[in-house]
């Protein structure tokens, strides 16, 4: 017989359901945690990247002569020095490691310099002479498909159609709109950084801040023309990711320089370079039409969605699939016609960012729900509840939602919270404009808005999505201790804590060491799609079960709860590695978009209360309360942290965060003008966490990180609309939009 | 790059005379950003933070002399009651960390059109004391700002202090930014009422190549205000004042905001701050009569 985890862990603190301290918490708070930018090696040199100043240009010539003459320069490399394949990419291998004869976006890497000092590298870089023939950039996503082809197959990266039910439906009431989402950045605080060390076997060891070690490893090995086992990656300290580290940045570049010079090479982007060095959230144009009955039941939804993928595909294909399959939101709609397109342009490349396609669609469909409510004279929450999906509802893809979908309950929870009082004393910090002293109450109007959203959890469309975990127990100093090892990236979200908690619960062992994440163990999958607690958590749990089976055998019939485990293990080492998969998904039918494409769905709802200075167009979000179902809160504090962070990022998109481009050029590549919310912008939150277990998931968990990012943006905008009476069809909402200047 | 660290102002002036290309550094909140972005590569930095004289404030002939190196945090905490306008502007600068280090001298040295203290200094008739081994010059704020990030300093001069009215009338400062803290001004505005002289100071920031006074607005308002028998202001007066302030600006469209918005917002800020300042004045008159 085997023992239930609860019996084993009864004496162990810090298991699942608790909120134990993070193992890296103290170091981070004290500023002692080593991030990738702190990496150091005896004898190392510094790499830097020459980037294109043009969004689209032909490279006529590259002259390295003067750069090579700079004392202290060890190497200057171009595409000719890429040992293996010069093309890489997450979905399509369309992006050059170093540009060959054309550059397709401002900031594209053209050449590399390795030098004994970063300053020397910069100086040498300025002496590389690149002659460009500047071309007219393609920058409009809606017309890009018919514009100059930027890649051999044309500018359409992917089209996902969804066809469900009646394709020529009619309805009593029709509302339509065109919505726009600006380009948001992940704005992680730790810039791209890594250290490549050439190894004696001719391979290379790369210490790197990333979200997915194995996919990096594959791409780096292919570019270097090396077998996988010659390219070994170890995760370094990651200062945030949010999707921006799924693609390669300096990984191949640092390794090329290291192999070429036979010296350890460090690369660190500065803030400005970081804005050019990673993909952003796809800007979008979304055309929607909703048809409903007079009492507000949705009859049909039609949508044409354009997502600007920029110069290279990155994960555009998967983002397109998300925007399409989640395009009607968490509502029951029988008749759906959606066409979602991802395009190449000469804008900055866009790819993964928290919410991944669901954010763009969410802003549009929730704006439409408000428009519908207004047209019918109904309460916006009532209209949503009338159409809310539940467990058993059918998605526009035909997939049946087979675990909790408490959409109506989440909406009711946020609606029923007490409303904040209108403050009667003047505290500038609580005013729109804050301490900038723009109003003492003049022009301030309060508005309330609601939104709810849906997000898929884990990888979809038939992807073989798994994680590998190794768990070992042994006796050290008379105490039974455990060790857990995966390649799943800790990027700040707290996976290391969750792994410890799971091992404690499953094995009843207090002391759990987490080994550095690296490629010496199998794939841990991506730290994205809200999936690591689910998938790597599932793998660690399964590895613990394998260890427990071994222990049970050792116990030879005795119950584990009755033996002293340290005695039982003695000098043995029990070491089990397990590969764990969530249930399989299916691809989408390419013509109808039908198929059981997603693993799990997550839901969150927000109520936003805002004070808008309608004369100046400034906004103070007074409250941004949230209700979310997380299946099972393995670490309640971490769950709240995710909901707060996701909500803040959604607030940022609603009122300030945008990479502004003109003709493909970025106008604000710095934190001076790319604004993210401060403590005076983000209110304290009241959060309701539901724990409606998903029977298909380990411990019943449901992915937490992304759903709050989706509903927070439209809730804030709905509240601004309520205060101003304006249509506000674009995010971020700027003072110019509110004041119409 | 040399790092020069004089202990006294006299020493600093001697160094600056000898090496006019040395870049002074006070709080460093502008200088370090420029170095970091590689916008500037000076042969030497002249560190002013050891010079005690620059970090003091005193009263001289009934005017306040505030050393160029007094950080914003101390202006807010120690001079808030005496210099309300400057304290309000200081409170809007950056974050606590920036206010702990940043100085008015640095704001003047950088002379960015978006610097927050400039409109207050203009409206409050501040005089900038600059010095070199050749002597001292007293430059009215209105003559200090020459162009985008250009000021009236000669290469061998340093800013010693700013001189301000020690008993100013009602003052207000307001700035618009697209975030509720830590934001560069999209536009800003300061007003200072000078009841003793029956005058008004008004100036705009971040809305022209330099911070500048709104002279027509000042004159219009001085003519409208009944200083002796103050009454609540007519809305039409506030509006006209706002229009004239907006007209004084010549803003551009940029990544932070449109020219049209800046003009619109300046008119709103002018109207509102006038209302608050006049309310202050009414309050004071009422207290003095009681
Ligand atoms: C994150 C951040 C936020 C900011 N927010 C704001 C803001 O909201 N509002 C705002 O106005 N500014 C802001 N700034 C800019 C800066 O903080 C201010 O301009 C500040 O007043 C500069 O003062 P400092 O002492 O740090 O100047 P420094 O950087 O030391 O010097 C600035 C310039 O003045 C010169 N200088 C300094 N002292 C003297 C002197 N005594 N004589 C002659 N020249 C001198 C220097 O050579 C340099 O050219 C911000 C900066 C940062 C980094």
From TrEMBL, chain A:
GO molecular function, one term: iron ion binding
Alphabetized InterPro entries for the sequence: Ald_Oxase/Xan_DH_a/b, Ald_Oxase/Xan_DH_a/b_sf, Ald_Oxase/xanthine_DH-like, AldOxase/xan_DH_MoCoBD1, AldOxase/xan_DH_MoCoBD2, AldOxase/xan_DH_Mopterin-bd_sf
Chain residue ranges for the region called Disordered: 1-23
Pfam name, any one: MoCoBD_2
Biased composition (Polar residues): 1-12
SUPFAM superfamilies: CO dehydrogenase molybdoprotein N-domain-like, Molybdenum cofactor-binding domain
UniProt protein name: Molybdopterin-dependent oxidoreductase
Organism: Umezawaea endophytica
Automatic annotation (TrEMBL), chain B:
PROSITE patterns: FAD_PCMH (PS51387)
Superkingdom of source: Bacteria
Record Gene3D superfamilies: 3.30.465.10, CO dehydrogenase flavoprotein, C-terminal domain, Uridine Diphospho-n-acetylenolpyruvylglucosamine Reductase, domain 2
Every FAD-binding PCMH-type domain range: 1-169
KW Oxidoreductase (keyword) present: yes
Alphabetical list of InterPro entries matching this protein: CO_DH_flav_C, CO_DH_flav_C_dom_sf, Diverse_Substr_Oxidored, FAD-bd_PCMH, FAD-bd_PCMH-like_sf, FAD-bd_PCMH_sub1, FAD-bd_PCMH_sub2, Mopterin_DH_FAD-bd
Keyword terms: FAD, Flavoprotein, Oxidoreductase
Database matches in SMART domains: CO_deh_flav_C
A molecular function GO annotation: FAD binding
Classification via PANTHER family: XANTHINE DEHYDROGENASE SUBUNIT C-RELATED (PTHR42659)
Name of the protein in question: FAD binding domain-containing protein
Species this protein is from: Umezawaea endophytica
